[in-house]
Design a protein that fits this description.
1476 residues; alpha+beta; nine-stranded mixed sheet; 43 helices; 41% helix
């Protein structure tokens, strides 16, 4: 376990200052309260009153699993709590491994044992005495401690200069916070900048001086800063660098940790050469300092009088040994008499606490590094030698620092002192500050005394603060949430100082364990229980059992006795091991945990919160003395979780997970470390981290690995040990080769015996050099191979390479472990070879392989599968044979029935067509020891699926950076149309690669803000954050783009636009990611303004051109004019252009009037002219020549396949009706001219068609009305309209269409002149020709007056139907009128109600039998089954409708091939008579 406290001998003013200092009172230490408990210094422990266990909170029965707290005080999420069953709880390592993946996501978890697991508390409470540590809660908070340190140093600085800073200066009757005043000034650039910019009032408001305050606030702050802070700041400019150099020299160089990746995996290894090379910058700094002082003795690491001692030495005064004889003290006194010191030099003797007799335990080493570069420096006491010149002579002129006892010759000081000052004198190191902090020792207690103290303190603290319980008639107890909230308030409150005591890091080997032990309780079953914390570290699955000596706190449990608010600060376990903490009894202990994955974020957040402390002590987090609120950690993006531990519950912490917590009252906990196999890479990384910070490891990681290799021959151990040893060998051999390359003739020694740990410790980085060391005859020190140049200044040729194992010995050990670990692999290879080489493996071979696997003491996953395969072989064969037999039987039945080979799948086949079933069968096929033809059928079916699965698994196991492989494989899986789980995994891998590539490509070009935001969202979903450089770059671009967006939107929303500013923003958008909408809006405004000016000028210039068609298009002018509506300011010549547009509008209105559409919008004219032009194209076509009456193609008999008329029909379709278009929809035939007309052209109601027996067209009978939707203007009027366009300033699109219409009409008129004005020798024209051209004239949308009257008259003359000739027409107006109702429709008004000599066939002649036909399209056929050629839709045809022979419903023309499939014998269409 990591000690929960720093050594207690280091105590700065930060731990002595009280809240009175914040209220303007004297900065004097407040004496601590003595609770009257006698100190115990003898080895004999007096018996105490036993602790009555019924007075403490014990474990409660768990009737149900309590739910986690929904809302915690700091808004934290609770870490998971597990409730293992009795079977699961039997093996702690197996159970913890089962929950490790989830647990590592939280850093801490809680395990609640089954109710039946209740070990008795085995500690002898009568003989248990322990020493506590005093904790001031707000001093543990980093920001508060930095504040108090500054005030302490400031107090010393002014006191040394004759100014006693008894009270803090006051502003507005409030003490001024000089620390935050200094921070505020520093943040703004310093004193001169603040004065120049006159920012003192702003700083005052920041410090909380708001409202009614003195008018001279700025002057008061400036004067206070100038009087108290500025002199100290100027002093630090020169003193601070020198102090930092001195500290670096004492530590052997500055601690400059290497930034390492936090990704820890079992296969990770550190590149050996990355940590080797020439002398580091640290050495250069030390060399410069030595050169300045001309003394190498300054490099001694033990000059610091504040060097931290082992925590075990101060954990208990009960077992202190007797002090040495008085000779040494007398010598000290005589030495002191020769010094000009204001007070005696302190020389405390460090005494090691004894251990249990016969124990091979070593004490947990302290946090500080034990340097051995200068042995003589270790023997010197503080003040014996001058810290400047290094000499110990002239003791009468040696001045001792009143803060640290360091000695200085008065002549060596700058400036020199001529005499002993009459005030307290402090050295530069004390005035600058080293940031050292620790907890002071408390009293010695037994459990009963500490229980009473804890109770009295809690009762006194909450006295008068809690409301009265109406039922109990006394103040209620504070709830857990209230205690937690109060704890964090006290930690963060600078003014409210509360001191508590905590009995922590108490050695169980000295004081006993709360669990029963084999030595004291051999018959207790819990003494050997694997959850017993005395057993767990040395469990057969714990790697810590390979440490040769017991390590207190890691392999031997530590005890913790807490009271309310007692705290353990943020830390991670030694060597990043697991830890288990069990609460025997007492009040709740609240834990906070950071997952190992967030350790980097946590450390960065801590450095950000208290940069001053980390500047002074980069290894601050190893000292366990700093707290920071989880709320602030969460604000910095650190994942933080909480959990409450109660009696009988375990809390497990995971590797690399930082954790902290506090107690809610009197309780007793016990904790220890353990290390499953998956810890090894974390341990390796932990040692490398220690080496970076030059922190002393607890044990040698390499020695642990080699010990495991020597002691454990199991394959299970070899499976994790093999890769670890291989990594160790690779790094060690690389470093040795590097040394041999640098020093070709280096002498090598072979170390045949194990040396003590202190003799294999690197003098520079403190790591254990177990495998090899670098020596030099000039010094007893040794260094690791990484720091071979840090040993001494001798030539490299004098160095000695001493190895614990030779190269070949290391290789041999690694090879043996690898071979042992390879046994399962050999069996697996044999298994794979059998499966790969033998296409038809026999069942005997598989059984032999299974027998061989049973002889290997290792779990072989393939062997279990092989056993299942052999046992299931017969069942599988029987199942497959039954399937194939049913399939063959079904096939034979089908063959007899149909005589064909096609087979529809039965139920059995359908079942095995499911992908999961097919894959299941195929997986079994690959392992089964037999072959049948059914295997080939199964393989054939799943060949593609199997290939995809294999390739996908391989790619997922061995990912690549090539996206094409993922794309190809994903497309392959999707094409199979099966739900493969690999597809989602492949898509995820592809998405990450694609995201990176997309971002990189996007950053090379231009990217819109929406796309940038989408990339950020997508990247976040994929797990990227601002630690990814590309992601961080996107975030920066997003902020810049958002700023641009706000500026543009604000400007666009203003009433008057600043086009110059918009132009600047528009130019800026070329290098800034913006939204396309805003960019387009900005561009649209600018372009509109620019284009409008240019367009208007261009349009007005074109208006003067001679040809109207060369002038500006009216459509473009109108578009520009419409766009001007959105502009706040219209261009200057817009009015002139508007007038020209109105001239064109008048011309268009004239055209509308010609076509009878005066009330229609202007844009209707264009579409109507298009319709007129299209209609006239067909009606006035000269290619359409007179022909004999023809039947529609769908009404003709179906041609034979080899009939030439078929190709003719398909290539040329006849046109009908006045519209001169092919057949479509419902058509009706004229009984006189036998021409077919579209119902839509004549607009004949369907009811009229049903009731009419015959029909005469309007061509044969001019009295039949042709319905027209618009007026038909005369050609002469249109020509005049076209001529009027010559004066238009703009060119409308309608002009070109009008020209086409006029040209087509004139050509047709000229063609008809041969009939209207025939030559004298021209032959007479028959009636059909007259009707044909009259039909075309009536179908056109332009009125040719003379021609129409001529053909009407001639048609009546040749074939009169009406009694009177047709009247002459001069116009053709629209017939459109409101829709008529059914009542208005009568037979008399029907155009079909004309007399005709030949009656139409009745409805009885042709009938459609629809009554029994379902709602589906049907085909009309004759009685002889020949198709009529039309398909009737039930939505368009009345089922009771009788279809006359002269009515054809043509919805779709059918091909002969289609007729064969669609004609059914049940269709009932009877044709009695057909005139053709």
């Amino acid at each position: 376990m990591v000690p929960e406290y720093a050594p207690s001998t280091v105590t700065t003013a930060a731990s002595r200052l009280r809240s009175k200092a914040q209220n303007g009172h004297a900065l004097m230490p407040i004496p601590l309260t003595n609770y009257g408990i006698p100190s115990v210094t003898s080895r004999q422990r007096p018996r105490a009153l036993p602790l009555e266990l019924d007075t403490v909170e014990g474990r409660q029965n768990i009737s149900h699993k309590p739910p986690p707290k929904k809302e915690r005080v700091l808004g934290l999420q609770e870490a998971p709590t597990y409730y293992p069953s009795e079977d699961e709880f039997k093996d702690p390592f197996k159970y913890i491994a089962s929950i490790a993946n989830e647990g590592k996501e939280y850093g801490i978890i809680k395990v609640v044992p089954p109710d039946s697991w209740r070990p008795e508390f085995a500690l002898d409470t009568e003989r248990f005495w322990f020493k506590t540590r005093r904790q001031e809660l707000n001093s543990m908070e980093g920001g508060t401690r930095a504040n108090l340190n500054f005030l302490d140093q400031l107090h010393k600085f002014h006191k040394q200069r004759g100014v006693t800073l008894n009270k803090l200066p006051s502003v507005d009757r409030r003490p001024l916070d000089l620390y935050h005043l200094k921070k505020s000034v520093d943040m703004r650039g310093g004193f001169e900048v603040v004065c120049k910019k006159k920012q003192w009032a702003e700083i005052g408001r920041e410090l909380g001086y708001s409202g009614k305050i003195m008018t001279s606030l700025s002057s008061s702050l400036k004067n206070s800063y100038q009087k108290y802070v500025l002199p100290y700041e100027k002093y630090l400019i020169n003193a601070k660098p020198l102090v930092q150099q001195q500290i670096a020299a004492e530590q052997g160089g500055p601690i400059m940790p290497v930034k390492r990746s936090r990704t820890v995996s079992s296969s990770s290894s550190t590149e050996p050469h990355s940590r080797m090379g020439s002398a580091s910058p640290q050495t250069d700094n030390v060399a410069q300092l030595v050169q300045i002082n001309d003394l190498k003795r300054l490099a001694s690491p033990d000059r610091d009088c504040h060097s931290q001692v082992k925590s075990e030495q101060d954990s208990d005064d009960v077992v202190m040994l007797d002090s040495p004889s008085g000779d040494s003290s007398a010598a000290d006194e005589s030495t002191d008499e020769r010094r000009s010191s204001k007070r005696l030099r302190k020389s405390p003797e460090a005494v090691q606490p004894p251990t249990v007799a016969g124990s091979n335990m070593v004490l947990h080493r302290d946090i500080g590094a034990v340097k051995r570069i200068n042995h003589q420096a270790q023997l010197r006491k503080p003040g014996e030698n001058c810290e400047v010149c290094g000499r110990g002579d002239d003791a009468l002129n040696m001045l001792l620092c009143d803060g640290c006892d360091a000695g200085y010759h008065m002549s060596c000081l700058r400036p020199q002192l001529k005499g002993i000052p009459d005030y307290d004198w402090y050295c530069d190191k004390c005035l600058v500050g080293t940031g050292e902090f620790g907890f002071e020792d408390g009293q010695v207690y037994n459990l009963r005394q500490f229980q009473e103290k804890a109770k009295n303190f809690k009762d006194h603290y909450y006295s008068g603060k809690m409301s009265v319980d109406p039922k109990m008639k006394k103040p209620r107890e504070a709830s857990e949430d209230e205690v937690e909230a109060e704890f964090w308030r006290l930690v963060e409150d600078v003014n409210d100082t509360v001191e508590v005591e905590y009995g922590a890091d108490i050695h169980s080997t000295i004081h006993g364990s709360g669990f029963p032990t084999i030595e004291r309780n051999p018959l207790d079953p819990y003494s050997t229980n694997p959850w017993n914390l005395n057993i767990m570290p040395l469990h057969e699955k714990s790697l810590l059992r390979y440490i040769k000596t017991d390590v207190s706190g890691m392999t031997v449990p530590w005890l913790y006795v807490g009271m309310i608010f007692s705290t353990f600060c943020w830390h991670s376990e030694d060597h990043y091991t697991y830890s288990a903490n069990y609460q025997h009894f007492g009040a709740t202990k609240t834990w906070y945990g950071i997952p190992g994955a967030d350790s980097d974020k946590f450390e960065e957040a801590m450095r950000k919160a208290v940069p001053e402390l980390f500047e002074q002590q980069p290894d601050l987090l190893f000292q366990l003395v700093t707290m920071l609120s989880p709320k602030r950690l969460i604000e910095e993006g650190v994942s933080c979780y909480a959990i409450d531990q109660r009696p009988g519950e375990f809390v497990i912490t995971f590797p690399q997970a930082y954790h902290a917590g506090f107690n809610h009252g009197f309780n007793f906990n016990e904790a220890v470390n353990f290390a499953p196999a998956d810890w090894e890479p974390y341990g390796k990384f932990g040692v490398e981290t220690y080496q970076d910070y030059r922190k002393l490891p607890v044990f040698s990681h390499d020695e642990l690995l080699l010990t495991a290799a020597a002691r454990d021959n199991s394959i299970e151990t070899a499976s994790w040990l093999g890769p670890a040893l291989a990594t160790m060998q690779e790094q060690e051999m690389a470093m040795r080769d590097h040394i041999r390359h640098l020093c070709p003739n280096i002498k090598e020694e072979y170390l045949r015996v194990d040396l003590p740990d202190a003799e294999i410790q690197c003098a520079y980085c403190n790591t254990y050099c177990y495998l090899s060391q670098i020596l030099c005859p000039c010094t007893p020190n040794i260094v690791c191979l990484n720091h071979y140049d840090e040993l001494c200044d001798c030539d490299r040729s004098k160095r000695i390479l001493r190895v614990r194992l030779k190269d070949e010995e290391v290789a041999s050990i690694v090879s043996k472990v690898r071979d042992r670990a390879h046994k399962p692999t050999e069996w697996h290879e044999k298994y794979e070879r059998l499966m790969a080489d033998s296409e038809k493996p026999t069942l005997r071979a598989l059984r032999s392989l299974l027998t061989e696997s049973e002889k290997i003491p290792y779990a072989l996953p393939e062997a279990e599968q092989l056993r299942k395969t052999v046992e299931a072989a017969n069942k599988w064969v029987e199942e497959v044979q039954n399937i194939l037999a049913r399939k063959q039987q079904h096939r034979r039945r089908h063959d007899r029935h149909s005589g064909r080979g096609s087979v529809k799948p039965n139920e059995t086949e359908s079942e095995f067509r499911k992908p999961e079933d097919i894959f299941k069968l195929l997986d079994e096929v690959e392992k089964l020891p037999f072959y049948t033809s059914e295997i080939d059928l199964l393989k054939e079916r799943v060949e593609q699926m199997n290939d995809f699965t294999k390739r996908a698994d391989h790619l997922l196991t061995n990912p690549v950076e090539n996206m094409d492989e993922y794309i190809a494989l994903i497309e392959t899986g999707i094409a199979l149309k099966l739900d493969f789980p690999q597809i989602a995994a492949l898509e995820n891998c592809y998405a990450k690669l694609q995201w990176k590539e997309t971002v990189n490509d996007a950053l090379k070009t231009y990217i819109y803000l929406q796309d940038l935001g989408a990339l950020l969202v997508e990247g976040s979903k994929l797990g990227f954050d601002d630690t990814e450089p590309v992601f961080k770059k996107l975030l920066k671009a997003k902020v810049h783009g958002d700023t641009w967006e706000r500026d543009v939107n604000k400007l666009l929303e203003s009433e008057k636009l600043d086009y110059d500013h918009l132009e600047n923003l528009y130019d800026e958008a070329t290098t800034t990611s913006v939204t396309k909408e805003t960019y387009d809006a900005l561009e649209k405004v600018l372009l509109k303004h620019k284009e409008a000016n240019e367009a208007i000028a261009s349009f007005l210039e074109q208006a003067s051109r001679e040809n109207v068609r060369d002038r500006a298009p009216y459509r473009e002018v109108r578009r520009v004019m419409d766009s001007l509506k959105d502009l706040p300011i219209k261009p200057s010549r817009a009015g002139e252009l508007e007038k020209q547009a109105k001239v064109v509008d008048e011309w268009l209105r004239k055209g509308k009037k010609l076509f009878g559409k005066s009330n229609a919008p202007l844009h209707i004219l264009r579409s109507h002219l298009d319709s007129v032009e299209k209609r006239n194209h067909y009606c006035f076509s000269l290619n359409d020549e007179p022909r004999a009456p023809a039947e529609p193609a769908s009404h003709e008999p179906t041609p034979e396949p080899d009939n030439e008329s078929r190709s003719k029909t398909e290539s040329h379709r006849e046109v009908f009706c006045i519209c001169r278009l092919p057949e479509s929809g419902i058509m009706i035939e004229c009984e006189l001219c036998h021409e077919w007309y579209h119902n839509r052209c004549l607009k004949i109601p369907r009811g009229t068609i049903k009731d009419a027996d015959c029909y005469t067209c309007p061509i044969c009978d001019y009295r039949v009305r042709i319905y027209r939707d618009s007026d038909r203007p005369k050609l002469e009027d249109l020509e005049q309209w076209e001529q009027d366009a010559a004066t238009l300033p703009l060119c409308p699109d309608e002009l070109n269409i009008l020209h086409k219409i006029n040209v087509t009409a004139r050509e047709f008129r000229n063609f008809l002149q041969q009939f209207v004005n025939p030559a004298s020798d021209s032959p007479s024209v028959d009636i059909n020709t007259m009707r044909f051209y009259l039909r075309k004239l009536e179908g056109g949308d332009i009125l040719l007056v003379n021609e129409t009257n001529f053909f009407r008259t001639e048609t009546h003359r040749l074939a009169p139907v009406a009694p009177d000739p047709p009247p002459m027409t001069e116009s053709s107006l629209s017939t459109r009128k409101p829709r008529a109702t059914k009542r208005d429709t009568s037979a008399t008004n029907s155009p079909m109600a004309t007399p005709f000599t030949t009656p139409m066939p009745t409805s009885e002649d042709v009938k459609l039998g629809f009554n029994d036909i379902p709602d589906a399209p049907m085909t009309l056929v004759h009685k002889d089954r020949s198709p009529v050629g039309v398909e009737l839709s039930p939505m368009l045809v009345d089922r009771s409708m009788a279809v006359p022979t002269n009515i054809l419903l043509a919805q779709r023309i059918l091909t002969p091939a289609y007729y064969q499939d669609d004609i059914d014998m049940n269709d009932t269409i009877n044709v009695i008579n057909d005139r053709s």
